[in-house]
Design brief:
Layout (H helix, E strand, L loop, with lengths): L6 E5 L4 H16 L2 H4 L2 E5 L8 E5 L2 H7 L2 E5 L2 E5 L5 H15 L6 H22 L8 H10 L12 H28 L5 E7 L8 E8 L6 H6 L3 E3 L2 E7 H14 L1
Parallel strand pairs: 1-2, 3-5
Antiparallel strand pairs: 4-5, 6-7, 7-9, 8-9
């Protein structure tokens, strides 16, 4: 009886760029016929003896060891590009590989899924390469960090679903924060809105996350920094104990 061949994905850990690179591979294998014929395994920073290796990297050390560009030699395929992050290299590689495969019956759905998360990968790259060119990029990076996600998919089996949902959750909180800031101005108060919520990934029901959004020149950072958080002028955040937050509400109600 022939041994079952397994595909393994090794990714940089603990790092958002590495985790999202693994997400790109997950999206590929979720729609590839390969997934129905052999198990797909994900390992953070694991080394073993494989039959074939695909190297997707953007670090200087990889460039010095393997050279730049894309090439195939023996059982090794490499894509080294210091102008992209590991996440977008993996996204582009697996998207192209998937569309070349025999999945025509589901191709439209696959295209839509890849296109839906493209912007998310661009934000990961923008922060990983310290470019900060995209709108609210630092706020997105700060919000992702505050989620305190476990990037080891073995310890956190829902990692990829959490990653896919990251952009939708961020956009919702930003929209709510800006709506509250506008309402605050209409009430002759400062143009700052606060969105308060719990973070399930922290496994602590007593901690709340407060995301601040402001309009124009209103600076949210002095408030966030006072409570050990941070961010930038129009978008910052911090954590607070639920008991203290309840005292805030009592003080506000008594002053009205």
């Amino acid at each position: 009886m022939a041994a079952i061949k397994k595909s393994a994905v090794l990714y940089h850990y603990p790092c958002p760029d590495g985790a999202f690179a693994a997400l790109a591979a997950h999206l590929y294998f979720s729609h590839s016929p390969v997934a129905t014929t052999s198990p797909i395994l994900f390992f953070p920073n694991t080394v073993y003896s494989p039959l074939r290796v695909v190297v997707l990297d953007h670090h200087k050390t990889a460039l010095e060891m393997l050279g730049s560009g894309m090439s195939t030699s023996g059982n090794v395929i490499k894509v080294i590009d210091m102008e992209r992050s590991g996440a977008t290299i993996a996204y582009d590689y697996f998207k192209e590989k998937l569309f070349r495969g025999d999945i025509n019956s589901r191709k439209n759905g696959v295209i839509g899924e890849f296109q839906r998360v493209r912007r998310l990968f661009e934000y990961i790259e923008d922060g990983d390469l310290w470019r900060w060119r995209l709108p609210n990029s630092k706020a997105f990076s700060s919000g992702l960090k505050d989620l305190n996600l476990e990037f080891d998919v073995i310890l956190n089996p829902t990692l990829f679903q959490q990653a896919v949902n990251a952009d939708a959750v961020y956009e919702l909180r930003s929209e709510l924060g800006h709506q509250l800031a506008n309402k605050s101005i209409k009430m002759n108060l400062r143009g700052i809105g606060a969105v308060v919520y719990s973070v399930p990934e922290l496994d602590n029901d007593q901690l709340l996350k407060i995301s601040l959004r402001s309009i124009s020149d209103e600076d949210t950072t002095p408030i966030s920094q006072e409570y050990g958080g941070g961010g930038h002028r129009n978008a910052s955040s911090f954590m607070i104990n639920n008991a203290e937050f309840q005292r805030w509400k009592v003080s506000l109600n008594n002053s009205i």
